[in-house]
């Protein structure tokens, strides 16, 4: 098999949520100069590209995912000159820069929408999706991903507009060729600046079913990967195809079976996709335990669907929309915290695909013990909280659910040091700092050879030095084992086996015939080598990487 090499297959990515990364002018909000000040840190970690979540002008109803001007930088973050400086310094560090591309919707403060809502005859009316109401109110029964009806009534023209997310995020009308032309020229404008690609937000929602379609069991079916979306995506691909860039689509609703069409080497719309299968496995309610068998199945399904050059995977365990992985998939308990953070690192970094580390994940940051809804910023979480109260749930019970599920769990400021403001700022930040900053911070972990941070570094290094860990095939062993995740990566003679105990109990297993440990060298372990007494017994959250001799 010939290997199609690409820089974006070899690099490890790092997602930056700028608001919470590093504040340099001490207004309590992270900024572009803050990112620039940490380029050495990122380089040292082994990062090949950063993905920066939206920094464009925005009223920040959904923290930048509601864009009011695609070609301006939000003042709080800095200026366009500071962006250019960041871009060129990142490049000098050998770090590429991926921007967030939010083209399913704009802010309701975008000039297109302000025009659009002004009159049914306005030239921009068809930039958005407007419809007459019915006797029941909204045009149909569709509900928004952020709660409530997906329609908002507008007094000026007595019609409703569609919003898949918050009501301040009206959906663009992709059936209008003018909309596409504008968006594509904006994309080219950014690419001409020399950025290295896009993470394409909510892109599986750009096509809507006919408005007469009723909601089904899946409340979002009418605007999730709806057939006919191909045409729009092909046009978008033709814009991307002209450049050597990384594109990753956020593709809620795209199954592993369909993935090759979305990311196939030649005709795919994107280089890779963020899938939702393994992430949705984390049970948001009662049971805290990870369902290891289904977790392995979900990951393996994607690994196999895109194997042998059929496509490429995007690998992740965290992002700005989900709670911290140690808290949901691992354990915050003192005895398990460090080992579980490392075990989770090995559960995704060495799979086939391009890994994305989310800021703070590399030091094992955990969920925030939120005590009141006033500490919450995310609009969907607030909606959810008040919906729960309306059903009669007591506030403290509702807060319990929020503590576990809120996406703000991953938006607390980056813990650089154990100081009062965690080395993030010199004043109270926009979002509460996790009190465990004294225990979990970058500064302490830099000097500790056993730290989560140094473990991440070692894995990234190992990956960069062994092509099998990048281009090699993937194989799952012991699929039915309820605790162990065992997989191999192989390219010609280069052969690795990764064994991870994803449970709080000891685990044992007879390893498959061809994985007899005597023939293998231990490359990496989250226990001290000498603590490994028995090759076939694994301590809680123990994880090892072996290479064939
Ligand atoms: C994506 C983003 C999320 C945002 C939503 C609407 O899911 O990751 O943060 O709220 O799109 O743009
Ligand atoms: Ca600032």
Automatic annotation (TrEMBL):
What the entry lists under CDD domains is as follows: AmyAc_SI_OligoGlu_DGase
Q: Which reaction does it catalyse?
A: Hydrolysis of terminal, non-reducing (1->4)-linked alpha-D-glucose residues with release of alpha-D-glucose; Endohydrolysis of (1->4)-alpha-D-glucosidic linkages in polysaccharides containing three or more (1->4)-alpha-linked D-glucose units
Q: Which domain of life is it from?
A: Eukaryota
- Cited SMART domains: Aamy
Q: Name one GO molecular function term.
A: alpha-amylase activity
Would I find Metal-binding among this entry's keywords?
no
Q: Which GO terms describe its biological process?
A: oligosaccharide catabolic process
Domain Glycosyl hydrolase family 13 catalytic spans what residues?
15-411
Q: Which cofactor does it need?
A: chloride; Ca(2+)
- The main enzyme category here is hydrolase
EC no.? 3.2.1.1
Q: Name one Pfam family in it.
A: Alpha-amylase
Q: Which UniProt keywords apply?
A: Carbohydrate metabolism, Chloride, Disulfide bond, Glycosidase, Hydrolase
Q: Subunit structure, briefly?
A: Monomer.
Q: Which family does it belong to?
A: Belongs to the glycosyl hydrolase 13 family.
- Identification of the protein by name: Alpha-amylase
The source organism is: Spodoptera exigua
């Amino acid at each position: 098999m010939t290997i199609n090499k690409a820089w974006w297959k070899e690099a490890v990515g790092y997602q930056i949520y700028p608001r919470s990364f590093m504040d340099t002018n001490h207004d309590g909000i992270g900024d572009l100069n803050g990112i620039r000040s940490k380029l050495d840190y990122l380089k040292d970690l082994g990062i090949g590209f950063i993905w920066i979540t939206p920094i464009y002008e925005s009223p920040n109803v959904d923290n930048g995912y509601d864009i009011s001007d695609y070609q301006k930088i939000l003042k709080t973050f800095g200026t366009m000159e500071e962006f250019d400086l960041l871009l060129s310094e990142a490049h000098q560090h050998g770090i590429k820069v991926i921007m967030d591309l939010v083209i399913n919707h704009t802010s309701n403060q975008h000039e297109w929408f302000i025009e659009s809502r002004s009159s049914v005859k306005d030239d921009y009316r068809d930039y958005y999706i407007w419809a007459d109401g019915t006797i029941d109110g909204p045009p149909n029964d569709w509900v928004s991903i952020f709660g409530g009806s997906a329609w908002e009534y507008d007094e000026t023209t007595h019609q409703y507009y569609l919003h898949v997310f918050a009501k301040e995020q009206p959906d663009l009308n992709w059936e209008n060729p003018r909309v596409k032309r504008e968006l594509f020229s904006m994309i080219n404008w950014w690419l001409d600046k020399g950025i290295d690609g896009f993470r394409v937000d909510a892109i599986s929602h750009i096509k809507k079913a006919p408005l007469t379609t009723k909601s089904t069991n899946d409340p979002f079916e009418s605007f999730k990967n709806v057939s006919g979306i191909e045409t729009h995506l092909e046009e978008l691909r033709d814009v991307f195809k002209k450049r050597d860039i990384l594109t990753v689509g956020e593709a809620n609703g795209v199954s592993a079976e369909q993935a090759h069409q979305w990311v196939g080497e030649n005709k795919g719309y994107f280089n890779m996709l963020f899938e939702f299968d393994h992430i949705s496995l984390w049970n948001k309610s009662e049971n805290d335990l990870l369902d290891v068998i289904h977790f392995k199945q979900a990951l393996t399904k994607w690994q196999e669907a895109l194997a042998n050059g059929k496509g490429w995977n995007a690998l992740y365990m965290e992002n700005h929309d989900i709670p911290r992985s140690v808290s949901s998939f691992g354990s915050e308990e003192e005895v398990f915290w460090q080992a579980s953070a490392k075990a989770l690192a090995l559960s995704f970094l060495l799979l086939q695909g391009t890994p994305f580390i989310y800021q703070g994940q590399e030091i094992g940051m955990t969920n925030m013990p939120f005590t009141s809804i006033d500490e919450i910023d995310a609009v969907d979480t607030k909606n959810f909280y008040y919906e729960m109260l309306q059903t009669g749930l007591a506030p403290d019970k509702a807060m319990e659910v929020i503590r576990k599920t809120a996406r703000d769990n991953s938006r607390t400021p980056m813990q650089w040091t154990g100081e009062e403001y965690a080395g993030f700022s010199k004043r109270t930040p926009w979002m509460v700092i996790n009190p465990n900053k004294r225990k979990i911070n970058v500064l302490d972990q830099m000097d500790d050879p056993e730290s989560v941070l140094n473990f991440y570094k070692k894995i990234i290094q190992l990956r960069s030095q062994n092509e099998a860990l990048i281009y090699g095939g993937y194989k799952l062993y012991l699929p039915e084992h309820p605790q162990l995740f065992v997989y191999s990566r192989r390219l010609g003679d280069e052969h690795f086996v990764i064994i991870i105990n994803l449970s709080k109990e000891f685990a044992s297993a007879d390893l498959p015939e061809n994985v007899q440990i005597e023939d293998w060298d231990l490359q990496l372990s989250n226990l001290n080598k000498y603590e490994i007494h028995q090759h076939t017994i694994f301590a809680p959250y123990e994880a090892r990487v072996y290479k064939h001799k």
